Write a sequence for this structure.
């Protein structure tokens, strides 16, 4: 869960935290913690230094294969990122550690044959007085359809109903490669598009409206390699991302690297899930 605003002193703007969920046959709950080298959301570098991203969630079955999930996700700058030549901080770099973003969310998910369907809403809250502030708080609705067949294709759509009123689309595929009976790599590819979230620049190149991207159209492609393993009741999901950027905003990697065609970031998601009073193994 995450979002952005056109940069003033700091560019604003995931990938989503790698999470695990137990089967939805009963009430379930869990806690996740992402530890990443940077916070890159929808191709945009929001913080280019290490972050912690905790998540708490609760899922309740509502009949058949459907369930309602509610939760809260946040991003925390680990240090005080205030070097004007190298650092990007969602909170403006004035404190560390610093809670820079909190996102509440609720979604309805179900399966129909080999397809998984999700409808949801999320709210973005920025608690700091610098960088992204409460003036950027907004609400977004989203939907996703995914297929469990070859290449596991999925299509996601997000629409900002508050501040920007624009559409963001992602299409992705993934494929598992069994390296050994106990070790599998997941290769992923994602392409993203913006419709209506552009900045509407004036003659001086300055954005005249709140925006997530500079232009409409293709914004970036993301290629990832991930794996997962369990240790006791915890699930670990290391991931590595390589991005090819197209939009002017996604090309912003640091104050001194404002027109970079690629970026790299990596980290690990740590998850625990339970349900019905019994410990559940994360998927």
């Amino acid at each position: 869960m995450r979002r952005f605003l056109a940069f003033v002193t700091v560019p604003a703007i995931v990938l989503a935290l790698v999470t695990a969920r137990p089967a939805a046959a009963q009430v379930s709950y869990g806690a996740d913690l992402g530890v990443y080298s940077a916070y890159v959301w929808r191709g945009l570098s929001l913080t280019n230094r290490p972050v912690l991203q905790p998540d708490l969630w609760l899922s309740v079955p509502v009949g058949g294969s459907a369930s309602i999930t509610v939760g809260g996700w946040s991003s925390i700058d680990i240090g005080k990122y205030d070097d004007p030549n190298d650092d990007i901080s969602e909170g403006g770099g004035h404190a560390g550690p610093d809670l820079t973003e909190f996102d509440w969310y609720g979604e309805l998910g179900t399966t129909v044959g080999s397809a998984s369907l999700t409808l949801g809403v999320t709210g973005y809250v920025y608690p700091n007085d610098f960088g992204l502030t409460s003036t950027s708080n907004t609400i977004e609705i989203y939907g996703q359809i995914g297929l469990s067949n070859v290449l596991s294709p999925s299509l996601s759509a997000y629409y900002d109903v508050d501040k920007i009123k624009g559409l963001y689309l992602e299409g992705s595929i993934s494929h598992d490669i069994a390296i050994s009976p106990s070790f599998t790599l997941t290769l992923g590819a994602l392409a993203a598009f913006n419709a209506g979230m552009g900045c509407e620049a004036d003659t001086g190149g300055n954005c005249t409206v709140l925006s997530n991207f500079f232009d409409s159209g293709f914004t970036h492609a993301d290629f990832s390699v991930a794996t997962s393993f369990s240790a006791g009741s915890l699930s670990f999901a290391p991931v590595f991302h390589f991005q090819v950027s197209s939009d002017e905003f996604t090309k912003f990697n640091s104050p001194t690297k404002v027109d970079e065609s690629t970026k790299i970031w990596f980290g690990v998601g740590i998850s625990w899930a339970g349900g019905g009073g019994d410990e559940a193994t994360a998927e």
